[in-house]
Amino acid sequence: MSADTAALRRRYARRYVLGRVTLYLLAILAALVCALPFLWSLVSAFKQNQDLYNPSNDPFAFNRPATPDHVRYLFTDTGFPTFVTNTLLVGAAVVVITLLLALPAAYSLARLDRPWGTPMGIGIFLVYLVPPSLLFLSMTRVVVALGLADSLWSMIVVYPTFTVPVSVWLLIGFLRAVPKDVEEQAMVDGHSRLSAFARVVLPLVFPGIVAVVVFAFTLTASEFVYALAFVSAAPKMVVSTGVPTQLVRGDVFYWQSLQAAAVFTAVPIAFVFNLFLDRFVTGFTMGAVKT
Predict the structure, then answer these.
(1) pLDDT class for 278, splitting at 50, 70, 90?
(2) How would you label 76-85 residue by residue, b for 16+ Cβ within 10 Å and e otherwise?
(3) Domains delineated in the chain
(4) Which percentage of the chain shows pLDDT scores above 90?
(5) At how many degrees (to 10) do helices 255-275 and 239-247 cross?
(6) Potential cystine with 63: which of 57, 162, 248, 288 (Cβ 3.0-4.6 Å)?
(7) Element (H, E) at 248
(8) Among residues 114, 123, 209, 108, which one has the least CA distance to residue 165?
């Protein structure tokens, strides 16, 4: 090996190492910037009132000793545990209903060659684009007519109206990515269409199902307008409406307890989201490309 070749290789090696180090430093910097609001909320949740009210104090440090009083207040003097339970119940029910409706609809539009398939798929997606603020008055009348006011069932019945359309559109793209030959081979081996769908197709579209589950649950947990319009009784409220209702009273903000509620709500969702992040991203990107 000549000296010039060795020098060139060392130069490219240094450039590669420098590029990787720069990339990781930028990634760490971006992660810290994104984590600053969460860290600020976590520190604020354990601050004393005197520490919080003094504008000269460092907002990211404990200038006075930390106290768990505000976190204890959140769990003992408010309905936060009930709000979390209600949110989980509503989210789980909406996810199940969304999958039960979206999977057959997406399968029929992706597999059955009908002239109305594409227009109907586009129409289903356009329904999702209608702002919820334009529909909550009419939806409220429907909920009252069904006798579901001030109950969790009001949200369970209405939320699928905006989770199902986008879920159908997403699953259509992912089902089209699965070759028909795989399903037809299963039917040749003696499976019915339903059995082939359950045994062959569903495992292949699992990333899309994960994307639908994460999307439907997070959208349900963060929704505010319908939850506020349908439920006024505190024991039936979810986190999005119960926390601000009980911790914002006129011009009095229970700030540390509000930050504690944000932290305890965000951590489980963030953990589950990151647990299935690869499949979630795969579900959205594959569905977008193949639609």
Answers:
(1) low
(2) eebbbebbbe
(3) 3-67 (no CATH), 74-290 (1.10.3720.10)
(4) 14
(5) 160
(6) 57
(7) strand 248-249
(8) 123
